[in-house]
# Entry
Amino acid sequence: MQGSVEDIEIDLLLEAIYQFYHYDFRHYARASIKRRLLQARDRMGFSSFSAMQEKLLHDPAMLPGLLNYLTVQVSEMFRDPSYFRALREKVVPHLKTYPSLKLWVAGCSNGEELYSLAILLREEGLNRRAMIYATDINPDALQAAEAGVYPLDQIRKFTENHQKSGARSSLSDYYTADYGRAVFDKRLRERVVFSDHSLVTDAVFAEMHLISCRNVLIYFDRELQDRAIGLFHESLARKGFLGLGSKESLRFSGQAAGFSDFVREEKIYQRRDLS
Amino acid sequence: MTERPQAVVIGASAGAVQALLKVLPALPATYPIPILVVVHVPSDRDNALVGLFADKCLLKVKEAEEKEPALGGTIYFAPSDYHLLVEQDGTLSLSSDEPVHHSRPAIDVLFQSAADAWGEALAGIILTGANHDGAAGLRAIVEAGGAAIVEDPASAEMPAMPLAALASCPGAKRLGLESIHSYLLELVEK
# Structure
């Protein structure tokens, strides 16, 4: 079949990235990772993946650029407003019964979802008792998330989404405009811990009350999805909540028995413990 | 293309609904290969295409879900705000990667991954539209040995997308909508 040399090269490249740098993309859904690799290869000016691999193994300075191609997600604040509305209306009342809370944004990328949650917590009066863990495998993305700066031309969409999520305040309360950029209030991340964490290779976080991991699992193959979902199950407190992306589901997962539907149409699940 | 194809992919933009209504509804429920469709729809609107076409088509119509196998007898629409891709084993994937040609889903993304998965056993069809999405994807299908069909720009509601596809694939068959319907029927008679 045509293209098979390229596919072998991709296998070898992913193996090299894993063995040398310990980033494991071998079980990512292949069609998307291939698309991103092709884009990286062309824009970085390599004639083949083999040439790219040689350079990558001998020049660690190339890694961050490649990781940005392989991992960075473009997102929006309050993407899928109905998800955040469901968190607000259905999940928050449960969260309010805990004296202290731990939340985990797994695969936080540039932080859009993190700030959305931080704003929602503040609006619901939960910010002082909540710690948020924001994790990603990409150091550049974590740095961007920690900076909380977004292009001003995205703010209109963010604001519209925020309003649709049942906002109790104005998004403009949380940022200042500065030379075409919106700089988000650093108080929103007072109780946020940013951390390098891989759903592929790293271990559990403990006793979370809510894990939000949206549009990350769609990039994994079935085996890796099951690993990540198992990790979420172990990381959740009893009756803790898991929110996935609108096209992700536990339905076909080997871990499905560990969760019950909480808000089915928004892909919000609750940890179930078989007693 | 020498043997019977394993799948059909269709891309359409402005004018898509009217065009697809002339192509898809009368296909028999036993149509043996999957049909995957990308239509450009606004990202913030719920995808109403599935409901509309499910009512009109003899074939089963559904929104594509990640990891499901593409099966015959079924028309799959890409969900709004996600790219639809095909894996080597013929299962479907979704991605929220950046828009291509300002579009998510993008026709190029589906066509290029489908060409990779099905090679010469694939037919790609570009219908009406006001942009250039699909031209590169159709070319990928041609390069992999698959069949390329483009709606005749002379009768297309929006000729820009067919014209762009023909410019990148000069050998593509140029057909009116009724002929595209007939072509789909003949395709599986082989």
About this structure: The two ends of chain B are 11 Å apart (CA to CA). Chain B touches chain A through 24 residues (CB under 8 Å).
